[in-house]
């Protein structure tokens, strides 16, 4: 058993063996989910609170379903409508919730680093469901599991991550994870949407789809985050689609068996052609969603095991 | 007449090249003898036991949160912090609530300071009303009331015409203008310096070039106006050639840097530690090294604390939302001694930047160990190690990035005009 973390705040602090442990367990859960045989008592008696300070349908539903499949009591809090609006600080919200003794906190927040801050103030396991432009670890893990199942391995692959990298926490977590597992990472974006210093992280940087996609095994598209753009990153969506949108012609530069991924929700006709997205021979976008539930089940299972061990050690100490 | 004599000290005279053993004779708060002094007629003789005796630090750009936010810092608490840190003259910033932009508010500050502070307090006033960058303040009246310099602090006057007029008018009054160089559009919303670290953390970054761009504009306006100008902080390598060139061309410009930009870099932010959020943000290690060299070479004239008290509430927030700034009156000296121990800078060079140059720039007679100068002094041990504990700070706000850091160098005593001000504090 090689999963030591108390929280899942990001991929940055996970070791390769922890990632493998988590993916192995998630792989089993994925199979059990298909057979309807997931162990419903794994998280029995555990309470899971989903705190989403930013709108989300898919991720929140995925976490909720993952918790329920393993028997946790799941509560969703719509933070945008809560006392946060009344000026309560994040720390106070965290302390209030902590006093209710939850076991698992799933947090999404629009500010980078906010989930780290919150995790310092609570004594339950915290899962980062996306913080600002920083990390989205469960997305990277589900992408990794999808790749591993499709390609049979998660190392020495050539993987292109394309599009709005500047605003993407998905890209950051994926760069971390795929780098730790020793893959070749190519980043393709218009220079205005490419964060600085990415080459220093061991990525190859391209501003041209043809050059970047040449011979890759995996094409990972990102959503153009129009809501985070305050003007002038790209001239227009139609020019973006023309130069960076994934269509059959551009996909032709990748290997013949290259798979196409997208974290969703998709802007069809902006970053990806609808037919490519729906092509069951190339697109694994639906599998990504399926693996999302399995990965979140595995993450919560492992964190709860560590939490129980920690609590047991603590109460043993108290008795002595 | 009160006569105090210091013996057996290592004197750090910033006007010489090396510390030398000797003593000081003080009569009624003024230095009357340096070197081999007699103890004849002395009321007090202080045997320094071989410790370093240097001019007290003259700190340009200290924020005291009076008026407006006295819960963050007051003249009394800042005065105690300064005394403990060997700072004998504080030059205060006008970025208070309300801004110090009228003679009336300035007089309030001076009254509070003289009642409460253990050390000298000299106020700066705002350059424009409300620090809004639209209309210049009553520079003449404010100088009469005691303003030693004019600054809008971290706000840049973006309207070139307003800034040109303010500089022209200030020049006619002989006033010193202190500016902040940071292109306001490029730096808007930035929390860190752009680059690999900013990208990894997903934080909005500002290019280090924003500093050079603003400096270039200011130098152009100084060439037109001939005004006296001091840049509060130069923190990037790319700005240094422009500064050197301007000085060579005879522009009346000097520059400072905060102690934090000399001793920390952007990576110290680590996992979103908001006590390391500063304005301008911490820079790359290459920039830090270049700036240290510039201080040693005298291109950067002044080292200051940029003491900025922030309470826990304004720091315990997600990084982008957290307030900027750090307290440093008490850590300035031990942090500066790191540069000395690394061999980057000599003690007299350090004291030129800490005391002599700021005093000269402001037209003050302190900041040196010469006959006729006020006996503003700090006695310190440069080597005693300690672990910084922020709960022991005298500042009301304890937002220091050095909490838990291993440091060396402790103030043994501080005197202002010959009067010991560290009684019961150390």
Please characterize this protein's 3D structure.
Chain A has a five-stranded parallel β-sheet with strand order 7-6-5-8-9. A four-stranded parallel β-sheet of chain A has the order 2-1-3-4. The two termini of chain A are 27 Å apart. Chain A has eleven helices and nine strands. Chain A is globular and about 65 Å long. Chain A has 320 residues and is of the alpha/beta class. The longest helix of chain A is centred in the C-terminal third of the chain and has 35 residues. Chain B is α/β, with parallel strands linked by helices and 426 residues long. Chain B is built from twelve helices and 18 strands. In chain B, helix 4 packs across helix 6 and helix 6 packs parallel to helix 7. In chain B, the strands form three sheets. In chain B, strands 1, 2, 3, 4, 5, 16, 17 and 18 form an eight-stranded mixed β-sheet that branches. Chain B has one domain: TIM Barrel (Alpha-Beta Barrel). In chain B, strand 13, helix 7 and strand 14 form a beta-alpha-beta unit. At the A-B interface, helix 4 of A face helix 5 of B.
| Average predicted confidence as pLDDT of chain B | 97
In spatial order, strands of the major sheet of chain A run 7-6-5-8-9
Please give the oligomerization state of what you see: heterodimer
By DSSP, the count of extended strands of chain B is 18
What descriptive keywords fit this protein?
heterodimer; A: 320 residues; alpha/beta; four-stranded parallel β-sheet; 11 helices; B: 426 residues; TIM Barrel; eight-stranded parallel β-sheet; 12 helices; 18 strands; 23% strand
Write a short abstract of this structure.
The complex is a heterodimer of chains A (320) and B (426). With 320 residues, chain A is an alpha/beta fold.
Layout of helices and strands, plus pairs?
The complex is a heterodimer of chains A (320) and B (426).
Chain A: H1 16-35, E1 47-52, H2 58-69, E2 73-78, H3 90-99, E3 104-109, H4 114-119, E4 125-131, H5 137-151, E5 158-162, H6 169-180, E6 184-188, E7 204-206, H7 209-213, E8 218-221, H8 237-244, H9 248-251, E9 259-261, H10 274-278, H11 285-319
Parallel strand pairs in A: 1-2, 1-3, 3-4, 5-6, 5-8, 6-7, 8-9
Chain B: E1 3-11, E2 20-27, E3 30-35, E4 44-47, E5 52-55, E6 57-62, H1 75-85, E7 87-92, H2 103-116, E8 120-125, H3 139-144, E9 149-151, H4 160-173, E10 176-179, E11 192-193, H5 196-201, E12 205-206, H6 209-225, E13 228-231, H7 240-248, E14 253-258, H8 259-263, H9 285-297, E15 302-304, H10 312-315, H11 332-341, H12 347-361, E16 377-387, E17 406-416, E18 419-420
Parallel strand pairs in B: 1-4, 1-5, 6-7, 7-8, 8-9, 9-10, 10-13, 11-12, 13-14, 14-15
Antiparallel strand pairs in B: 1-2, 2-3, 5-16, 16-17, 17-18
Helix pairs in contact in B: 4-6, 6-7
